[in-house]
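**User:**
Everyone, produce one record:

**Assistant:**
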Amino acid sequence: EAPGNGRGVFRREAEAGGAIHFFREVPPSGPFQGRDPGRQESSGIGRRRPSMAGGTNAPVDRPRRGGEGDIRRHRQRRNRGEGLYINHPDAGIRKKTQSYLKALIDLCGDLGGKVLVHGSPQQRNIKEGWEPAEAWKRAQETFQICAQAAQSRDVFYCLEALTTVDTNFINTIDEALRMVTEIDHPNFQTMLDCRSIHASAGAELPEVLRRALATGKLRHVHVNDPNGRGPGFGDLQFAPLLKVLHETDYPGYISVEVFDFAPDPRTIAGRSLGYLHGILESLGAKANPAKINRDC
């Protein structure tokens, strides 16, 4: 938890660096459409200074229902996250994981969130001796439960494809879309992380993004460089990606997720924000000010 002005950022940091991120949403305006979004819903870290175009890892104000006691209870549940695994052969471990994920979904709903991103690479690896097809079915079981829980709280649970360096389970957007299609639930979606998907797509990343958007099953986008830094801090060109989002009237967030915090978070936020806004201006697009936050 990162406190500030009575508010905080909640993020689940799982074993070996996994994470589940919460994002708020302000429908129906998108960050590229330039329409009046109405009431501003974004929250910041610290003193709510300007930030990235898109979302954050769990920007929150006060919970819409319940109170501080509910937050404390959710925090206690969150801190008991050891030994979780979405596709473990042990049904008891899966049940514990499913209960934990449902508690996170409840937390997201209580905080007014709309989008959760499921990463957690070490909690989904297929271990030696496991049959991949069976591990896939066990993951389906977990995600089906997450989808139903997400529907009950009016949020979207988004599966993130990760690099083969991070995990050996669901490494491409096509694999993530296959899982989403087989679950076949409107509240279970996928998202695209530029750093992760670039590892498999390379120069075809803009076209991969376009195809994923065309399925109607992509709900969120992380813009980050393959070097683990923000957009504009490496070699990846983000103008073609933002062009795709603009042309397809993408209505959701984009967020900057970094893994290298050099030289410092404020510099990363400022430079990334300027870089993204410069691209949007060149495209004749306009960022939605209600969807400006950061992921660092």
